[in-house]
């Protein structure tokens, strides 16, 4: 929150004679211009002191300007500004005639109106800085009390004091120099200071970056940033991890900023140093560090970093390289390797049995080279190619009379048997059919000509229930359970149950949980258990509804079989999840890698630095 009205002074002093003399002396020192004393054009001044005194006189400014222009001691812009001031010296603020007099007069904020008016009238101040000077002028006129300092030097000293910071920042906010998030950050900083948290002893953004990048100063900077609320959540946690590592004597890499530390830590000469700090700070496990040392911090094909290695391994031509790299370095468990080999064999068999139309379609999508590699087992497809295969089968459509979808698919993808009753092809369609025609659903035979498992459990010839919608009473409610047969038998040894109303529960220990892939069979057992707990008078009505649900489940099972095979095609190779060792456990996070420039220690208390900078 530098009080910008002091900037006017710098423009007024451009025309001061000392400026020209300083230019001359600077050039002399650099041997850019060979100035011989005495200087005839400057009143035969014999040395620097004499020439400076000569140019301090207002009447000699023209001669000094001409000398500076002749010897290229001033830029065109500087000369123009000086000549503007020279033409307006008769009306200079307070009648000042040289640099020292104008400095003294305009450094006093009581003279701000006169100095700003003079600078604006004579074009001595840029538009942006003139706007800021007027903001200060306006705030003072509104009664906002400025800090009780008279000039830049005094204000630097005054506003650096923690006790005065609130006063200076308040004026900066009222004058409009601190707004939005910057104002919020300034308030956070003030609250932290009031709680006794000591800010780092640095001034300005660059100085604070330099100060807080030094390992011995990081604790001070981090503590203040966390206490002031500039670091939150994961960012604050990472800072604390780094801080604990530093306290244990582990030095962070000597780099500043994410880009610089990325370059530093990818160098083979620095990998060990960076990994040691990452492990100490908890950003990398010992196992990951061991892997990183083994691979030298490089991934397949020599890639470095997450983005580079992902791009490399996502290229189908590089998948075998990435797979081999992961396999050689023990990144894929043996169980997964075995599953992948089995999947590869199944996939090759499926390709051999694909209809020619589907093969042509797939070849058009992936190209001849990739297709041949898939057939030979050199290349395993990822999800993208799996989706393309599915599209090819869907485009072909099922032949007439074959079930739901994938009639021409490989054996693993074909559905078992026809669709639902009367040829319905979806759960919704079959449900509507069965609601309209229950008899068709009751007589529907499942796959391979077998009757519904549900109907086998409750065949009509053994069921002596009451008419639909009427309560079941007496012996008519008794029924005999049929024998349990087939590989899907879900029940214990065959037993006939004589069950009376109100006693609908299975004997204890007689139900055996079906183990295997979840499907309709497992759901039948759940339905069976639920049925024993229901009232007899509801049973007949529920049986009909369950028959409808059975048809839906059969269709859903067919769909699941197709989806299961498709998932085998689409299962992404583990290598596509590969991240290089230096990224799987990222290269040791540089001290500033967790810091955002304007929110934490990346700029190292940027809000504080900016506030202090403006206050000067």
Question: Can you summarize this structure?
Answer:
The protein has 616 residues and is mainly alpha-helical. Helix content is 55%, strand content 0%. The chain has helices spanning 7-12, 17-29, 48-56, 61-70, 76-87, 99-106, 112-121, 127-141, 152-160, 162-175, 180-194, 205-213, 215-227, 233-247, 258-265, 271-280, 286-295, 306-313, 319-328, 334-352, 356-366, 368-376, 383-396, 427-436, 438-442, 453-457, 520-532, 536-570, 581-584, 606-614.
Largest sheet: none
Q: Give me the secondary-structure category.
A: mainly alpha
Order of helices and strands: HHHHHHHHHHHHHHHHHHHHHHHHHHHHHH
Tell me the span between the first and last alpha carbons. Answer: 7 Å
- Total helices: the number is 30
Q: Helical content, roughly?
A: 40-55%
Beta-strand content estimate: under 5%
What is the number of E strands?
0
**Overall 3D shape:** elongated
* Mean pLDDT across every amino acid position: 68
* Low-confidence residue ranges: 1-32, 399-418, 447-472, 474-529, 531-537, 565-616
What is the CA-atom radius of gyration, in angstroms? 43 Å
């Amino acid at each position: 929150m530098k009080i910008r009205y002091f900037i006017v002074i710098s423009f007024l002093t451009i025309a001061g004679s000392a400026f020209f003399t300083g230019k001359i002396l600077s050039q002399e020192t650099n041997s850019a211009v060979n100035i011989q004393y005495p200087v005839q054009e400057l009143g035969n001044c014999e040395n620097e002191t004499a020439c400076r005194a000569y140019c301090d006189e207002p009447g000699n400014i023209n001669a000094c300007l001409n000398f500076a222009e002749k010897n290229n001691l001033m830029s065109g812009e500087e000369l123009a500004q000086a000549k503007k001031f020279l033409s307006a010296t008769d009306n200079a603020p307070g009648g000042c005639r040289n640099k020292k007099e104008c400095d003294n007069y305009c450094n006093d904020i009581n003279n701000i109106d006169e100095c700003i008016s003079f600078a604006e009238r004579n074009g001595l101040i840029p538009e942006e800085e003139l706007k800021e000077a007027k903001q200060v002028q306006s705030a003072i006129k509104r009664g906002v009390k400025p800090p009780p300092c008279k000039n830049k030097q005094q204000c630097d000293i005054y506003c650096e004091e923690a006790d005065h910071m609130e006063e200076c920042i308040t004026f900066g906010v009222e004058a409009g120099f601190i707004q939005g998030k910057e104002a919020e950050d300034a308030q956070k900083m003030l609250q932290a200071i009031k709680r006794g948290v000591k800010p780092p002893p640095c001034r300005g953004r660059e100085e604070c970056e330099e100060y807080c990048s030094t390992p011995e100063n990081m604790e001070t900077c981090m503590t203040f940033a966390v206490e002031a609320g500039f670091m939150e959540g994961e960012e604050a946690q990472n800072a604390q991890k780094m801080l604990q590592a530093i306290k244990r004597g582990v030095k962070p890499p000597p780099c500043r900023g994410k880009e610089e530390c990325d370059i530093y830590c990818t160098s083979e000469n620095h990998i060990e140093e960076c990994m040691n700090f990452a492990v100490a700070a908890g950003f990398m496990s010992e196992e990951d560090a061991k892997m990183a040392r083994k691979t030298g911090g490089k991934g397949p094909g020599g890639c470095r970093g997450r983005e580079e290695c992902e791009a490399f391994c996502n290229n189908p031509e590089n998948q075998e390289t990435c797979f081999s790299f992961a396999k050689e370095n023990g990144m894929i468990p043996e169980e997964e390797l075995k599953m992948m080999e089995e999947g590869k064999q199944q996939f090759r068999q499926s390709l051999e049995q694909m209809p020619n139309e589907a093969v042509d379609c797939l070849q058009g999508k992936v190209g001849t080279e990739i297709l041949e590699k898939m057939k030979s087992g050199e290349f395993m497809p990822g999800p993208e190619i799996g989706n393309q295969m599915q599209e090819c089968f869907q485009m072909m459509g099922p032949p007439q009379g074959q079930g739901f979808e994938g009639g021409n698919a490989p054996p693993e993808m074909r559905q078992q048997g026809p669709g639902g009753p009367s040829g319905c092809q979806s759960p919704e369609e079959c449900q509507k059919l069965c609601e309209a025609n229950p008899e068709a659903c009751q007589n529907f035979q499942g796959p391979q000509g077998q009757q519904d498992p549900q109907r086998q459990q409750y065949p009509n010839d053994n069921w002596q229930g009451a008419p639909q919608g009427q309560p079941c009473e007496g012996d008519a409610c008794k029924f005999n359970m049929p024998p349990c047969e087939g590989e899907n038998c879900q029940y214990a040894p065959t037993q006939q149950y004589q069950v009376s109303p109100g006693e609908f529960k299975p004997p204890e220990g007689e139900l055996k949980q079906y183990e295997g892939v979840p499907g309709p069979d497992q759901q039948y057992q759940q339905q069976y258990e639920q049925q024993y707990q229901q009232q007899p008078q509801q049973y007949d009505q529920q049986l009909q509804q369950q028959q409808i649900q059975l048809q839906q489940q059969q269709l859903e099972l067919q769909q699941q079989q197709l989806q299961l095979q498709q998932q085998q095609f689409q299962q992404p190779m583990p290598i596509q999840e590969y991240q290089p060792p230096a990224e799987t456990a990222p290269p040791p996070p540089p001290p500033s890698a967790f810091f955002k420039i304007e929110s934490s220690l990346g700029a190292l208390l940027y809000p504080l630095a900016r506030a202090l900078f403006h206050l000067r």
